[in-house]
Amino acid sequence: MKYLDSLKFSLYAIFHPFKGFWDLKHEKRGSISAALTFLVLLIVTYILRRQYTGFIFNENDPKELNVFIEIISVLLPFFLWTTANWAITTLMEGEGSYRDIVIATAYALVPLILINLPLIPFSRIINMEEGAFYFFFTSVSVLWSGVLILAGLSVTHQYTMGKSVFTSLLSVVGMGLMIFIGLLVFSLLQQMISFVYTIYREIAFRL
């Protein structure tokens, strides 16, 4: 029952962000299970949008679907963001735990689900001239979620809105650094493995 209540509370939180995110953290109205559910629903939404959006507005080839890439395209940015934000706000006296950041961010993404799902069938019955409505609502979903993320971070960490914007920008920079370090480590490991394999082949050849 608490799980269902946590899911339903998202509808309150997205329309009353400051009170909603306060209750998510302090009244425990949200849960990790609900947050992960929203992540799964977001992945499903993007897969359905990729596959079934009207061909006028869809630049993807449905035959080239790679479910793994679609899943990573949602999970990787999400966990890079939450990890970078947790690291930055820990240094800047933020009051939110990693759990709080994950829940607040996941709940803030609910408009992407609620708006983009009905846009899929809508895109199949409108023409190019009416496409302005499609792109308008797509933009609304992104902007709405962006504002909710800022509001959620402001409440979660007890920041002013200005400080929330600043730490969000630092978090984006942190995401870039994490990607750079990850690629660097991957490249070094690749070279080490190649080097060890070369030595092994050389020894095997001499024997």
Record the SSE blueprint.
Blueprint: H1 2-15, H2 17-26, H3 32-52, H4 67-91, H5 98-108, H6 110-123, H7 131-157, H8 161-206
Written description of the protein model:
Helix 1 crosses helix 3 and helix 7 crosses helix 8. The protein contains 8 helices and no strands. By secondary structure, it is mostly helical. The model has no long low-confidence stretch (mean pLDDT 92). The chain has one domain.
Number of strands: 0
C-alpha Rg (nearest Å): 21 Å
Number of discrete helical segments: 8
Integer count of domains? 1
**Strand-residue proportion:** under 5%
Question: What is the makeup of the main sheet?
Answer: none
- Low-pLDDT segments: none
Structural class: mainly alpha
Helix content percent band: over 70%
Q: What gross morphology would you assign?
A: globular
Average pLDDT figure: 92
Kindly, what is the distance between the CA atoms of the first and last residues, rounded to a whole number of angstroms?
Answer: 68 Å
Order of helices and strands: HHHHHHHH
Could you list some keywords that capture this structure?
mainly alpha, globular
Compact summary:
The chain has helices spanning 2-15, 17-26, 32-52, 67-91, 98-108, 110-123, 131-157, 161-206. The protein is mainly alpha-helical.
